[in-house]
Amino acid sequence: MSGGEELLRSRGLRVTRPRLAVLDVLSGGGHLEVEEITRQVRERLDSVSTQAVYDVLGALSRAGLSRRIEPAGSPARYEARAGDNHHHVVCRGCGEIADVDCAVGAAPCLDPSSADGFEVDEAEVTFWGLCPGCQARRSADE
Ligand SMILES: [Zn+2]
Ligand SMILES: [Zn+2]
């Protein structure tokens, strides 16, 4: 049994070839758009519709096996790193996204100064800036 099959079963999900393929693509790391995920899934399976990939991503997200992020101005992206309350830093120049760690349990961002009575269980912070590549291009332009 592959790691992907075990993961799916552990979350009570039926094991299907498209689900295994999407998990495999996501386990490669990064923050991928649906278009890119579909392209890579098609390298593994003969024919998969974009809608099928959306359906799989929805099921995986609900089961906590993938996470959907959608920085302002960018299409939705998916990643395998879910449930650890990490954040993202997005480059204003090229749109590159990197993870920013936030430790589970001792995450200070889970204690907002005021939550208006809400019980908070997740914080999603998006940092914006320039990636190293764009910084280098900017100083070369100057
Ligand atoms: Zn950049
Ligand atoms: Zn991430």
UniProtKB/TrEMBL annotation:
Record key words, sorted: Cytoplasm, DNA-binding, Iron, Metal-binding, Repressor, Transcription, Transcription regulation, Zinc
Gene3D superfamilies, sorted: 3.30.1490.190, Winged helix-like DNA-binding domain superfamily/Winged helix DNA-binding domain (1.10.10.10)
Stretches assigned to coiled coil: none
Needed co-factor(s): Zn(2+)
Primary localisation category: cytoplasm
Record's keyword annotation contains Iron: yes
Binding annotation for Zn(2+): C91, C94, C131, C134
GO biological process: negative regulation of DNA-templated transcription; regulation of secondary metabolite biosynthetic process
Name of the protein in its database record: Fur family transcriptional regulator, ferric uptake regulator
Species per Swiss-Prot/TrEMBL record: Micromonospora mirobrigensis
